[in-house]
Amino acid sequence: MRRILSVLILLASSSVQADLKLTVFDCGQLIFSDVSAFGLSNKETAVRELFVPCYLIQHDEHLMVWDAGLPLADVGQTSGNSRYEKSFLDQLADINIEPSDIDLVAFSHMHYDHVGAANAFTDSTLLIQETEAVAAFEHPEDNPVFRAELYNALRNTNRRSLNGDYDVFGDGSVRIISAPGHTPGHQVLYLDLSNYGPLILSGDLYHFEASRTLRRVPGFNTNVEETLNSMDKIEELLVTSGATFWIEHSKQLAESLNLAPAFYD
């Protein structure tokens, strides 16, 4: 309980409620014939498709991107294990937003299916755990799911290096929660939406509903113990905060969501 207390204190909202909106974008699908790499047997889940989302957060006059989808080169491809119909950048343009309009960009982690459009956001300030920055920019060869060419344009841009949980706007409404294990600096996002209520975006803490139910760790995670500790931390936060939990890759969840140009507030 002690470890979550500081998080809860920081989650307290300010007396003036920010105008906070969340927009969800379809940034592709991943298709698998075998899910054993995710720590599940093929008999433990019938799911073989994962949704790949991108998110836009509007906090008063500020814009923030959370996760940036599959590689832009995947748009329109019909072979392989990915499907991506319309790029994140084109979907942003549909609502009159250009990459240069984005103030802040953050990724749950730097795997290729979360940073596909990252290089477009060189005018934005990158919010990244220091451990993730070292892994992604200094030693990408150590993680086969990192593709440095997708995010290397951010290497020398404005950056806020994080060392744990972080209150993005200083009012508790948008908070990055450190949850390492999947990668060295994996993180999830807490949002305190006025109408929808508190919400946590999972990153890749779990990929499937069964991953959460059965408490399974993918074989490609960087640290099993850290992953399990992060699961405990976020599950405890869900209970104490009363937040709704979105498993980002859940196709079942995606089919129930209102996608862009709709938004949650």
From TrEMBL:
Pfam families associated with the record: Lactamase_B (PF00753)
Name recorded for this polypeptide: N-acyl homoserine lactonase family protein
PANTHER family assigned: BLR3078 PROTEIN, QUORUM-QUENCHING LACTONASE YTNP-RELATED-RELATED
UniProt keywords, alphabetically: Hydrolase, Metal-binding, Signal, Zinc
Keyword Zinc: yes
Positions of the Metallo-beta-lactamase domain: 51-249
Source organism of this protein record: SAR86 cluster bacterium
Signal sequence segment: 1-18
